[in-house]
Design goal:
The complex is a heterodimer of chains A (189) and B (289). By secondary structure, chain A is mostly helical. Chain A is 67% helix and 0% strand. Chain A is built from six helices and no strands. The longest helix of chain A has 29 residues, at 134-162. With 289 residues, chain B is α+β, with helices and mostly antiparallel strands. Chain B has two domains: 2-57; 116-287, Thrombin, subunit H. Chain B has three helices and twelve strands. Chain B has helices at residues 2-29, 35-57, 59-115; strands at residues 122-130, 138-141, 154-157, 160-168, 173-177, 184-189, 195-200, 207-211, 224-227, 246-254, 262-267, 276-280. A six-stranded antiparallel barrel of chain B has the order 1-2-5-4-3-12. Chain B has a six-stranded antiparallel β-barrel with strand order 6-7-8-11-10-9. Chain B is rod-shaped. Chains A and B meet through α1, α3 and α4 of A and α1, α2 and α3 of B.
Chain lengths: 189, 289
């Protein structure tokens, strides 16, 4: 069990760093039609879907924190939003255990939209200048569209990275979890 | 066990949210030299080389995806530039059109000034129609009797004589061109003063003949031919054309120095490309020299 926890923690940390570095160094710089993809909410949602609510929340907090530090932005904003995304997607997995192939796509789109709206709202609430307008809306919709396109591949990569470190192989689970009170796979180990 | 796990999860979640809000509050509350800002700068300075290295390593992938983006952007830009190009082309055409008309008006003005035609009350008109035959023997202009134009008025452009008005209505007129077989213009060779009549030859619409030149006059190719004006001193026999309006240049002479000599000339005015013309509505001194 300890080995699994340690392995999982290392892998999650590695995913966290690689995601932030890739996002800042490459993905953010590839702009198509005035918008670009945002890996961070996708990865946070995927981790939540795969490992559960609490690890998802911790991962979201950590990746948000790293993002805020790496981009020298207001510390706490990204971590607050991404921990909510990681927790919510983890709870979805624990409560509903959706099995459909397009679940990562739907969750990824919802996570991206929530992240975009959350960042915009928090930025406005913090009194920072936001270029509100159609161009911003276009950018947000463009990011959601790009993330929709890459949501499933990102989910599959994250799952491949984490699967053998999990105590229980989700591929072998066929029984639906309880509709309330379900826990992350880590709690069963 | 289950309750403890739930409680632990809720506590952890609450702690994370509280931590985020605390960091947010502290970060906003402190100055740029505050502890959290310093930590952030420290993390950033550690992270920057990694970021730089990653940026270098990921450049090919970035360029690849960027190429797709650039291609899509370029397509959008292409259609945008095509629209802009069309607008600019339309403006350029309008500009060159205006330049050409300006040049024609300027040459008309020069001809008026040089030939003393300002006193002939010139009326400037635009060619609005052209006979569809290959001979281009008549054109329609947008000025008529309302502007003082009468039948028989000579018509010029910046290069020289074009023809004469043959039909007049209130606001338009038909001009019979020099190339029409019906028209004959008293002319003289500018250098020698030899007088004759210019009319269309058999060669083509641009190939005028200068007839009735006495054989004692030697006419060389290149000689300028102008309108002769009124030659007769008798009243009632005035020429329709003021003297000295350029008609054309001699192109060739067949059997020179004989009674049968044939002198061909080409009009100065390009009769196939007429746009702006002037109608001389009043004779000057009976069109005598």
């Amino acid at each position: 069990m300890n080995l699994n926890y340690r392995t999982l923690s290392w892998r999650l940390a590695l995913i966290c760093v690689v995601t932030v570095v890739s996002q800042v160094a490459a993905v953010s710089q590839v702009e198509i039609l005035g918008a670009n993809a945002d890996l961070v909410p996708l990865v946070a949602a995927s981790v939540g879907l795969i490992v559960g609510a609490l690890p998802g929340a911790i991962f979201g907090f950590a990746i948000g924190m790293l993002l805020d530090f790496a981009l020298v932005e207001t510390v706490g904003v990204a971590s607050l939003i991404l921990l909510a995304i990681g927790y919510a997607s983890g709870r979805l997995r624990e409560l509903r255990d959706p099995q459909g192939a397009i679940v990562p796509l739907i969750v990824g789109v919802a996570a991206t939209a929530a992240a975009q709206i959350g960042f915009s709202l928090l930025t406005v609430l913090l009194g920072q200048t936001v270029p509100l307008g159609l161009s911003l809306l276009w950018e947000l919709l463009g990011t959601v569209a790009f993330n929709a396109a890459i949501a499933i591949p990102v989910y599959l990569v994250i799952r491949r990275c984490l699967l053998d470190a999990l105590p229980e192989d989700p591929r072998r689970r066929r029984r639906r979890a309880y509709t309330t009170g379900g826990l992350s796979p880590l709690s069963r180990s | 066990m289950y309750d403890r796990t739930i409680r632990r999860r809720r506590l952890t979640l609450a702690a994370l949210v509280a931590c985020s809000l605390l960091l947010l509050t502290v970060y906003f509350g402190e100055s740029n030299d505050g502890a959290l800002h310093n930590v952030q700068r420290g993390v950033f300075s550690v992270f920057a080389p990694i970021q730089e290295g990653a940026s270098t390593v990921l450049k090919p992938a970035r360029d690849l995806f960027g190429w797709f983006g650039d291609t899509i952007d370029a397509k959008g830009r292409l259609s945008e530039l095509e629209g802009s190009n069309q607008q600019l082309r339309a403006r350029a055409i309008a500009g060159s059109e205006a330049l050409r008309v300006n040049a024609q008006l300027q040459s008309l003005l020069n001809l008026d000034n040089a030939g003393g035609l300002a006193a002939a009350k010139p009326v400037t008109a635009r060619v609005i129609g052209r006979s569809p035959t290959v001979w281009y023997s008549t054109v329609t202009i947008n000025q008529g009797s309302d502007s003082g134009i009468k039948n028989g008025n000579p018509v010029i452009n910046g290069d020289g004589l074009v023809g004469q008005v043959s039909t007049v209505s209130g606001n338009a007129s038909i001009v019979t061109l020099l190339s029409d077989g019906e028209l004959a213009v008293p002319a003289r060779v500018s250098a020698s003063g030899a007088q004759g009549v210019a009319e269309t030859g058999a060669g083509g619409p641009d190939d005028l003949r200068l007839k009735f030149i006495a054989r004692r006059y030697r006419v060389d190719p290149g000689a300028a031919v102008v309108t002769a004006g009124t030659l007769s001193t008798a009243p009632g026999l005035e020429s329709l054309y003021p003297p000295g309006i350029p008609i054309g240049a001699v192109t060739r002479v067949v059997d020179p120095g004989t009674d049968a000599q044939k002198i061909y000339l080409r009009t100065y005015a390009d009769l196939q490309r007429l746009e702006i013309v002037q109608v001389l509505t009043a004779p000057i001194n009976g069109n005598r020299r």
